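Hi V.,

You were right to ask for the full record rather than a summary. Here it is.
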Amino acid sequence: MITIVIPALNEENTVGICVKKAIETMRNLNVEGEVIVADNGSTDKTEEVALKAGARVIKTEEKGYGATYRQSIPHAQGEFIIMGDADDSYNFEEIGPFIEKLNQGYEFVMGNRFKGKIEKGAMPLLHRYIGTPILTAIMNLFFKIGISDTNCGMRAFTKNAFEKMKLKTSGMEFATEMIIKASAVGLKMCEIPCNLYRDKRDHPPHLNTWKDGWRYLRFMLLFTPFWTYLVPGLTLMSIGILGMITLFVRDCTSPLFLGNIIEPKYFSLLLLPLLVGSQIVSFGIIACSLSYAKHYNNINKRIYSLLGKFKLENGLLTSLLLLCTGGLIITYLIVSNYWGVGPIIGDAVRNDLSVIATALIVFSTQIFCTSFILSIDILKVI
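Predicted structure:
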């Protein structure tokens, strides 16, 4: 059995068209099915029109595109579910290929408007050439999904797949969450061409280009601490460390060439990317430990595996070693400067060592605090 779910908010002019097309198409395909119109608080005749056209109406209380689907899909009687908008921009007479793919064993079928036909004026140029391609590219970079149209609103999936995804978001980012989690839980996925037509609504679209575009991007950033924190943090740290190593070696081997005026300033400036990067990495490790994404088999599973083996004592020991190393360097610099103990080194190298000692002590503090945060276990404390 198939259930077609259509979210609606004040769509009295088009919802009847969509329902009739869906019912007629299922009849022509000789499949048993139903149409659910999820009414998200319409103040016009949406409910009346939908009922008259033959749909079952589910009233949803929580507002939002995602919330409407989350509240209505559990009421579906069909094992196969097809979703699409109520403005007639997706033609429910073209659901046959979606049903065919589900019958072939696919658990999640994505429509792809760029491989189908996009009617003139159906998609804003900003969405078609900038917004959707950029968001799709970011999704593929972060999550290795391999799709070509992240925002297509016509999709099909099994009811069991819907339960596996455990979808949570309420707004337009629901579309992004669905794809990411479908891939993360290992659903058998595919993309098929899907046509997009000019909508027939008599009011502005519910989609807000900038607000909802940010919500798509925000969800992806929140769901992947690896790219949000660890990649930029480790990049900054690498710049700082490699720069320091290069200048320190040059200071030790060619002190006369380097001089004592300009190079120390450059060396000290490298503290900025090093310490900022280390702080971002620290936040990233904490985010990974708290991330909802850790419940899924995604590309960061090795990170979560390592975090699962973390022990507080190891973190504290590492922190102590760094603190002692930094302290010994500072002690040497003070003793050698005031009492002349130890080998004689130039001012540039002394400056380098003081910066290195500072970095080690800061690292020690970060590791100490992060280790305790990672080791918090409320149940054991209670």
